[in-house]
Write a structure and sequence with these properties.
This protein has 81 residues and is an alpha+beta fold. The chain has two helices and five strands, in the order ββββααβ. The radius of gyration is 11 Å and the shape is globular. The chain starts with a strand and ends in a 7-residue tail after the last strand.
């Protein structure tokens, strides 16, 4: 059973809806690439309901990227909104 649902939005954003709300990751469209902060950076930037869900988010986002032929970059400077 998935924890997150993903939806690409026209502003080069990936909307991630989870059990406590929604967060947004960067999703540039030139070469479709999802950017996820490292676990430590995510814990500092994510909403409190999602802080502990990084492993699930990474796993499910990895699968989403495979299905959608997107690259996944894990970068400490990636944004979470």
């Amino acid at each position: 059973m998935s924890v997150f649902e993903f939806r690409a939005r026209w502003k080069e954003e990936l909307v991630c809806t989870g059990p406590g709300g929604t967060l947004v990751l960067e999703l540039p469209m030139g070469i479709l690439t999802a950017y996820l902060p490292t676990e430590d950076a995510f814990k500092r930037a994510a909403p409190s309901w999602a802080e502990h869900l990084w492993p699930e988010l990474r796993s499910e986002l990895t699968q989403w990227c495979v299905t959608n032929k997107a690259r996944l970059i894990i970068d400490p400077t990636a944004g979470v909104y």
